[in-house]
């Protein structure tokens, strides 16, 4: 498809084409089934979790409100990325409009940063619950959740806003084929005729600043939790405490690991297939979203009981 002039768009590009595994058509066939199943699982599991927390009065507590926030972020991230990827796989609908592309770019960057920040707040919640249990009711209140949610929203909405703005202001003078399944910042920016060093530096800076600081605080929280747990003398207290935050830590570890692998494969792209980081980028928007509610549902007794009550009411 040839780019054509659009009066509302001074760059000369009216739409982009997402070149999603076109060099490996068999990937599209084999990925479409598991990707669609993961998408349905993520949507269904997060919806059930949200409904259970909303309907079950015993779950109207700060920890579960934070879990609800995580589920909402997961749903929006999945809906932003996966339907378009499946449309490419099934119907070859590779075109994406100029505004839609930069909107997708913004949602992906801001909501992934929000998810990282939510994990950090949840780690703080577990730290207070285990290391300062007597002070927990006075620190982790509904007002705390409101302030935390406001902080998560404002910090990440404002700091990630320049990413799509910087990319949209570039001059796209003809090339419009994005070598990716999604409108990733650098995949789009490298199509322009301008110098993209500012875009690259800003993406790098906020990536390491936001995600790096969140991960540091998360691991600091769990280091302090582990130290406090090992000092417990009561029988079974260590196992109970570790079980309480074990699922949380597993999910954070997976979230950060897949992100780290994506960064490393992107840096070493000359040594690995260019399709690998693209695949990891897509999976990073659906696998954590599918795992989060399942791991919490399996390992949290209160949520399991809430789901059982909800199912009984439905029957």
TrEMBL record:
GO molecular function: G protein-coupled receptor activity; olfactory receptor activity
Domain G-protein coupled receptors family 1 profile: 45-296
Membrane-crossing segments per the record: 27-51, 63-91, 103-124, 144-166, 205-229, 241-264, 276-298
Any one GO CC term of the record: plasma membrane
Keywords from the UniProt entry: G-protein coupled receptor, Membrane, Olfaction, Receptor, Sensory transduction, Transducer, Transmembrane, Transmembrane helix
Subcellular location: Membrane
Bilayer topology term: Multi-pass membrane protein
Gene Ontology biological process terms, A to Z: cellular response to lipid; G protein-coupled receptor signaling pathway; sensory perception of smell
InterPro entries assigned to the protein according to its UniProt record, in alphabetical order: GPCR_Rhodpsn, GPCR_Rhodpsn_7TM, Olfact_rcpt, OR51/52/56-like
UniProt protein name: Olfactory receptor MOR40-2
Source taxonomy: Eukaryota, Metazoa, Chordata, Craniata, Vertebrata
Underlying gene: Or56a3
